[in-house]
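Researcher: Next entry in the queue.
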Amino acid sequence: MRAITASRAGHLPIGELSRRSGVNIETIRYYERVKMLAPPPRTSSGRRVYDSQDLRILVFVRRSRELGFSLDQIRALLRLGGPEKASCREVRAVAAHHLEDIRKKLRDLQKLERLLARTVTLCSGGTAPDCPVLDILDIQRAGAEPPGGNRKHFSRS
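Model: Structure for this entry, 157 residues:
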């Protein structure tokens, strides 16, 4: 009985890999295409078969994506040795860079929040044709310059 269990753990069909990892089947195939996951061996009938290492890597990729790491960052982590061999110092460098990206996005979101809050405050909410919200969304409405132009009416600071 033990040999059958061990054998099954080494030969997971894609549906079982999907179920165990929490990753959609199409996403698994995508990760194979973009070389995040090595192409698995196939049975004589052409079905993909995965092993426990594939499952471990796939869960590592899924959890990394949940934390917002890009595919390139995850590739870098996997090149460092993946979840089992990577040096903490090298992983820390990748994670520190990602953390700075997150902080920059947060600052940008805070600027956007202030701009939108000011704009909503200026909007009377009435039926008048003047609407500050539409003015910042519609370039023709406000008579603004084309994208890339310098617009003084609303700043993003």
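Model: Residues 1-8, 150-157 have pLDDT under 50 and may be disordered.
Researcher: Noted, moving on.
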